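Case study 2.
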Amino acid sequence: MQSLRTCIIAALFLFTASAAQAVPVTWTLQNWTFNDGGSASGSFVYDAGTNTFSDMFIATTNGSARTGAIYGSVINGGDTAISAVPFDGFPSLLSSPNLMVMFAEQLTNVGAGVVVDVFMGQEATCNNAACTSLAGPVRFLEEGASVSSVPIPAALSLFLSSLVAFGLVARRRRSSGLAA
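Prediction:
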C-alpha cells in the first residue's frame, strides 16, 4: 500500500513539474530605445504550446519622428516575430500605429530569466485596412533591445513546494508506523 502512495506522489510531482514548463511565459521589454529618442516599455504573454500572445501592454513614448502609442492587440505573430496594433482592428487598421519586432531566437515557455535579443524592430503606420503594408514615419529600435522571461508565478512554486511537503510528511508517517 505504501509503495502505491509513493508512486502516486511521484506521478503527481512529475505531472506538475512538466506542467510548469508548459505554462505560458510573461516577457518584459528591456532597453527598448528608438533611433528618434523615443522608447518602449511593457510586457506580453507568449504561449509556445499554442503559439499565441495575450495580455499585451506595450507603451511607446514620443520621439522626433513619431508620437507614442499603447499596443494591446497582436495582429500577426509567432515564436520569432510579432506585429501589434493598439486595438483589434475592427473595422479597419488603416492609419493605425504598428509595432513590428523580430527576435534573434525563438520565444519559449522555458523558465525564468531567459533573455532573447531583438533582431530588428520598428514602429510605423498601417498603410491598408489589414495592416499588411506599412508607411512612414518609421522609427527603428536601437541595438541592445531584448525581452526577458519573468519568474514562474509564486502560486505555482507554492503548489509544488506544498506537494513535496505532503510527500515528506507521508514518508515520515510511514517510517514511524503512524500510517493507517
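Residues 14-20 have pLDDT under 50 and may be disordered.
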